Amino acid sequence: MGSSLRGLISGEKIPLMHTYTAARRTAIHEAGRAVMAYLLRRPFTTISVIADDDSYGRVQHAFR
Question: Is the pLDDT of residue 38 over 60?
Answer without folding.
Answer: yes
